[in-house]
Structure formats: structure tokens, C-alpha cells
Amino acid sequence: MPTPQDLEPTPRRVLNIFYVLDTSGSMTGTPIATLNRAMEETVQVLQDQAVSNADAQLKIGVLEFNSGCKWLQPNGPEDMEDFIWQDMSAGGLTDMGAALTELDDKLSRHAFLKSMTGAYLPVIIFMTDGFPTDDYKKALAKINENKWFRRAAKIGFAIGDNADTQMIANIVGNSEAVIRTSDLELFARLLRFVSVTSSTLASQSRTSTEALTGADIVKSAMEEGVIEEKDVDHNIKVEVTSNDAHAVASEDDNWDDDSDWE
Questions:
Q1: Cβ of 116: how many Cβ atoms within 10 Å?
Q2: Which of 107, 130, 98, 123 is nearest to 22 (CA)?
Q3: Which residues share a beta bridge with 249?
Q4: What is the average pLDDT across 114-119?
Q5: Which of 111, 113, 161, 177 is the most buried (most CB within 10 A)?
Q6: pLDDT > 70: percent of the chain
Q7: pLDDT for 2
Q8: Is the dihedral of CA 204, 21, 186, 237 positive or negative?
Q9: Sign of the CA dihedral 209, 212, 215, 216?
């Protein structure tokens, strides 16, 4: 009879957390400094959580966009425990469309979602302080046909008075998954809370009908008193940019047995 020492640990399924972050020229100065500090602190908290999470192997991917976009991890998401944050700099335009196109390309089993042990639906956190400078709606229509994106838990941060909350709501698919604030210190705290909460709840989701949504995470933040009702604009009407954008959950009800997912 095997001893406990002979038993191999159960492989953990991968939970990818993607950050899509605006580093355009309007982020110069205090905003980019705050974002860098917020991400560094968030990573530290998530690394502590990664050690104790018996259900999920946390991985992180960061996509920054300005005049174009680029991954901080060009070879794919890195294990959270091994990730070292490198500060970003600000400059250029706000090419959200380019970021969505790149994200669409990588949300695939042929790219960033390779896993021998299976994967949870990803968490995707968007942040911007401005308006898009390219055709993001065309890119959004395309990525909304990607099952991984469509079923991911998506949360949006609209920072400052000039942030395009309509764009962010369209991207995450629900105005109640968008948090607005002009308080950069509050944003830093919220980013940590949203990241930790989403990683915990997402690893508990087992079926498509139970899949975590961005609205669930924002609701949790309100229940915990981290944000107030005024920080969420319930009146934004989301513009559907694809016939598949809001497919019913039953269409993807076998995501846990996702051999037909690309």
C-alpha cells in the first residue's frame, strides 16, 4: 500500500489572469507610476495566494497598449510565483483595437492557453483612461466570436473623467462590470481586490452556468464596501457588436470538456 509520500499531488488546472493596460501618453506622470505600483503590489498578493491555492495554478499575462501593443511575456503567461514585475512607461496613442486583435490571437489552445492539466475560464482585466484611437469595434466583433473571450470573467476600469466608459462596457459586455474612478489610490486598492477576488472565485467555477462574470466580482466589491454604487454606471447601454457576443450559456455548456475549443 502506497504511503502518503508515494502519492503524487493532484495536478492543478491553470487559471490565467490577463491584464490589458493602457500605457498611452495620457498616462504619463502620476497615472503610470500609480499603475506600476498597483501592479507590483497586486502581483505580490497573488503570489502569496498562488502558494496556498490547491485548486488552480495561477498564471499571469500582461498586454500593454499605446501605439500598437505588446506582451510583457511574449512567450505566454508565466507562473504567478515566478513572475517579476517590470515597470512600464507611458507614451503614444490608445490602440485598443490592436490590443483586442492581439488578445484574440492568443486566446487559443494553439497559443497562450496550452495546458496538459486543463484550464479554468480566464479572467481578463481591462484598464484605460481615454478614448480609442483605432477601430476597436471591428476588433471587438471578431474577438466576441472567440469562446474563451466570450466566457471569460471580464472587468473594466475607466480611470479619470476622460475615460470612454461606453467602450469599456462594450468590451466587457456588461456595464455592471465597469468601475469608474478618478481616485488613483482607490484604483490601486481596487485592482488588488478585484484580482484576488476573481482568482479565488474563478477557480471555484465548475460549469458554464456557474462561470464567474465580471459583474459578480464588482458586486462582491460593493458588498465588501470596497466601492460604492456611484462607482458603477448602471445606465450604460452595451452595444452588441457580434451576433455571437451574448450567446446563451447553454451554447458553451461543455467548456469543462472543451476538446472542440480552439
A1: 6
A2: 130
A3: none
A4: 75
A5: 177
A6: 84
A7: 53
A8: negative
A9: positive
Note the pLDDT of residue 73: 94
- What grid cell was written down for 145? 466570436
How many C-alpha atoms does 101 have within 13 Å on its Cβ side? 14
More confident residue, 201 or 246: 201
Residues in Cβ contact with 49 at an 8 Å cutoff, skipping those fewer than 6 apart: 58, 196, 199, 200
How far, in whole angstroms, is CA 35 from its chain's centroid?
A: 15
Task: Round to whole Å and give the CA distance between 73 and 224.
Answer: 33
Q: Compute the distance between CA of residue 231 and CA of residue 165 in angstroms, rounded to an integer.
A: 11
Whether the pLDDT of residue 243 is over 50: the answer is: no
CA–CA distance, 47 with 172 (Å, rounded to integer): 26
Range scoring the smallest mean pLDDT among 13-22, 68-77, 108-117 = 108-117
> Which three-class secondary structure state does DSSP give residue 102?
helix
249-260 core/surface letters (b: 16 or more CB in 10 A; e: else): eeebeebeebee
Which amino acid is located at 184 in the chain? L
- Domains plus CATH for the chain? 13-253 (3.40.50.410)
